[in-house]
Amino acid sequence: MPISSDEFRVALSKFASGVTIVTTKDSEGNLYGMTVSAFCSVSLDPPLVLICVEKTAASHAALGESGVFAVNVLAEDQAHHSNHFALPLEDKFKIIKYFEGSNGIPLIENALVNLECRVVNSHDSGDHTIFIGEVERSNLNDAENPLIYFEGRYRAIGETLL
């Protein structure tokens, strides 16, 4: 028998993760974005990443339509962006500075890195879909440290141990 969703949430809060905003558009060009912590690299050759998107999220259908997305890895001073994109707002890009990537997807300004991806596979799993994207372009920015999420709070990287 599996553990409860509350117990699972507490257990996973012990895993520190970076914070990303995944952006996409639908077939009509409407922009979508959401805060995503379920992101990781899959392969170096070819360069693949995965994101997990809740099926009820507005971005889910748009991502399936367009087949492209961007992962914007947030810098330590961008917690406000994470909070903003976690809300169910009509136009999430109205007050956010962004620029358009080569595939028309919005890229968050001053993020630590922007990865432009094309969906190459998807897998239905529970209440989420796992999207695997091939990274077609990357944009590295001057920010030095990532935004970290641990035990339900934003954190910054402290001292380097090694």
Question: Please, could you describe this protein's structure?
Answer:
The protein is mainly beta. It has one domain (5-155): Electron Transport, Fmn-binding Protein, Chain A (Pnp Oxidase, Chain A). The protein has three helices and twelve strands, in the order αβββββαβαββββββ. The protein has helices at 5-12, 58-66, 79-85; strands at residues 17-18, 20-25, 31-36, 39-43, 48-54, 68-73, 98-100, 106-108, 113-125, 128-140, 148-150, 153-155. A seven-stranded antiparallel β-sheet has the order 3-2-6-9-10-5-4, sandwiched between helices. It has a three-stranded antiparallel β-sheet with strand order 1-11-12, with no helix packed on it. It is globular. The termini are far apart.
Task: Give a quick rundown of the structure.
The chain has 162 residues and is mainly beta. The chain has helices at 5-12, 58-66, 79-85, and strands at residues 17-18, 20-25, 31-36, 39-43, 48-54, 68-73, 98-100, 106-108, 113-125, 128-140, 148-150, 153-155. The strands form three sheets. Strands 3-2-6-9-10-5-4 form a seven-stranded antiparallel beta sheet, sandwiched between helices. Strands 1-11-12 form a three-stranded antiparallel beta sheet, with no helix packed on it.
